[in-house]
Amino acid sequence: MKLKSASFLKLLVLQCLTVLTVAQDDFDFFYFVQQWPASYCDTESSCCYPTTGKPAEDFGIHGLWPNRDDGSWPSNCNEETFDKSEVSDLIRRMQQVWPSLSCPSSDGVKFWSHEWEKHGTCSLLNQHQYFQIALDLKEKSNLLQVLKDAGISPGKFYSTERIEEAIQNGVGYAPFIECNVDEAGNHQLYQVYLCVDSSASDFIECPTFPNARTKCGSRIELPSLSSSRDQIDEI
Ligand code: 5GP
Ligand code: 5GP
Predict the structure, then answer these.
(1) Span 150-162, pLDDT tens digits
(2) Which residues contact 69 (CB under 8 A, 6 or more apart)?
């Protein structure tokens, strides 16, 4: 009898631990975050172009981030490290649309490793699925074209509302827009957040917008790479 209740207790503790682990890693949807290179380059720390070439004047992927409805998010869910060989067929596309702009110049692997290890390991996707889905979402959102169709092009100022409306109309869902402030004090469009369902199959309305972000003023710049503060020269 004693033995039976000891094993029952053991089982109960094990079950509780499993529930707790699952609860820590769970999520409700993804943020798909795209960054505007020229705005990244106008932030205080400036930028360095990738070793693979100057980035295109287009949105680049920042990451696909599992998130919970209450605003919290899981991170670094397991020890699986980024393995370039798992995504060898995607590397060329990643270099083009997921460039790393931080200094010193890099080929992107450090940035992709960071995104995979921090966010991807919580996504319930394998590495190939995670990167392939992010690349496909970037293509599907087609943000630069959506803005162009609404008469919005790099190098000018626009009302934040007009940019939000253009994305809402073009993608079909309301974006969250994060701004940065350049040296002259101008608000610039820095990142666009779109939401994706938890199986990463389609865009959805955002259950919650991220908080503690630099809000945009009513008038924001979509800077052009040629007019942004130049990259730091490599020493
Ligand atoms: P997160 O903000 O996704 O946790 O972290 C971004 C990390 O990736 C930071 O350590 C940042 O220095 C690095 N990183 C490398 N390249 C880029 C880039 O192009 N954009 C951003 N936002 N972070 C980058
Ligand atoms: P920052 O403090 O620069 O806005 O964010 C730093 C990093 O924290 C982001 O690159 C991202 O990795 C993570 N992060 C920030 N805000 C959120 C959020 O609302 N949801 C998720 N999933 N990750 C976030």
Answers:
(1) 999 999 999 999 9
(2) 28, 29, 207, 208
